[in-house]
What we know:
The structure is a homodimer. Chain A is an alpha/beta fold.
Amino acid sequence: MLQGKATWTFKNPPVIVSTGTVGGPFEEQGNIADDFDLFFSDQWMEEKSFEQAHSHLIEEASTIALKKANVSKDKVNFFLHGDLINQITPTNFAARELKIPYLGLFSACATSMEGLAISSLFVSEGNADYALTGAASHNSAAERQFRYPTEYGSQKPDTSQWTVTGAGMALVAKDGEGPRVTSATIGKVIDEGMTDPFNMGGAMAPAAFDTITQHFNDRNVDETYYDLIITGDLAKYGRLICLDLFSKNQRPIDESKFKDCGLMVYKDDQSVFAGASGPACSAIVTYGHLLKKLMKNEYQRILVVATGALLSPLTVQQKQSIPCIAHAVSIENLS
Amino acid sequence: MLQGKATWTFKNPPVIVSTGTVGGPFEEQGNIADDFDLFFSDQWMEEKSFEQAHSHLIEEASTIALKKANVSKDKVNFFLHGDLINQITPTNFAARELKIPYLGLFSACATSMEGLAISSLFVSEGNADYALTGAASHNSAAERQFRYPTEYGSQKPDTSQWTVTGAGMALVAKDGEGPRVTSATIGKVIDEGMTDPFNMGGAMAPAAFDTITQHFNDRNVDETYYDLIITGDLAKYGRLICLDLFSKNQRPIDESKFKDCGLMVYKDDQSVFAGASGPACSAIVTYGHLLKKLMKNEYQRILVVATGALLSPLTVQQKQSIPCIAHAVSIENLS
């Protein structure tokens, strides 16, 4: 049901019946390693290119999610997924192996929640029995596409972020055991004129603020409704800017319940500059770490706000500013 | 409602209340020029780059569709759109100007029907009052990204296709005057191992065959149900291969009602090799030419099967085959 301008509330909140989360060797050394299902020991994943390794991540996360739920591929109606690589080819090739009807998505690092929002709508109203959805990224594939090949050793500023190598997948169904998706707010593009591609957290903060505010207004709730409001990958500086925006707009948010996926993946002694990023970032934190906390009743209601910087190397070369977006999905334990 | 494996049939079929179609100078010389709303006199559209011109096309098509329906932007809940450019940045920048909650899509030249399918589902069940959806491409932006800059004058084989410069947009609503969207079938990725990026029609033909067959099976209809079955951009050779596949599988389709958008945009004396392509191809033919024919009662029931080649320059360099997809949407006059 449409509630307000841009929010769906689900009369029959669908269940996340299982998840699959995979990562690379650097993620295995990280902060939430216990919450992953599988790690690969190098960036190649026994493939010939980083991009094919990227596909492999998506296939593995899918296989794990399906296996855990004991649901075969042919029972799944739709696969909704995206990544950062040009023409989202890693996703396309994974979809070829999955053989599930496929809807390609792109909203950069906000893709995870774009997919969960749409999947939940499908399932909630009987338009899918099962939908498989997620997002993925691969550090080496992203580095050479967006910046420079890692071998060049180019220097980065402190505001830059580290693209997660991984894939996070959720299997959404009408019934079953697990936390339920209760609502979703689709964001609009916000562009405050920032042009520095090495400060995407800062660029995305106003989009997160806009979507969370829209969500509160549409659902007629405030921050007290949630145990946790977690942004996608604003990282160190973006999170502070976002908190600032809430304060300045007379809607202060309790800092202790306002977290960021980009600050949770790696340990403090891993050199990731301002924090983690990439479509996999919010996907693996949500479908690995946060789902487990919901299932252990450490949280009852969370709002995941995946954030995306919708730029490209070409738009940076053409000196355009960075359009940003955020999509918010609420996940709750319902009795 | 889910019908069969991968098809939605809409209990409350949404209406395409208005459309907007824009093109460039080459399209103005074409075969269906009378069906466009607006042409630009050059490839630059008064912008500084082809990519910004590409955004301009999307914004203009949106403005026209909204104006025709007398619906303001703030009444539209969702904008669902995509294009071929890396990270779909022309769409992202257009979404910034539109300020409508935005879901980015990518299925290459099948994007038009991915968007119409999802938009129709949203509207049909009350999850959107209005959804604006479409697809766009820009010949010069696509050429320099996927092939070589036009100025190089590189030679092409007869099986290659010509990327349409244009944008086609539809405004989907619950009620109103106009043809209605009655069902949609989401395709899965089909890859028959073809590797020639200059024969994408041939590569995509099996995907079109697969989706149309799935559609017939799911809805329990055959070709006689439709006045017209029209593929996205198989062009001259792909269309013949697709017809062949139907014959060989004992489901022959009457050639006279099996058309292709890629064969309708340009005149015979325009040098476009095997025909037109690009996400705009099926979008402008459907929302310009075909909608008018439905409204004039020349057709009552059509099935639009947009086809997409999900490759990239990188996957071609890495010697991968071409994964392809097709999404089918039925549009009908209901009394």
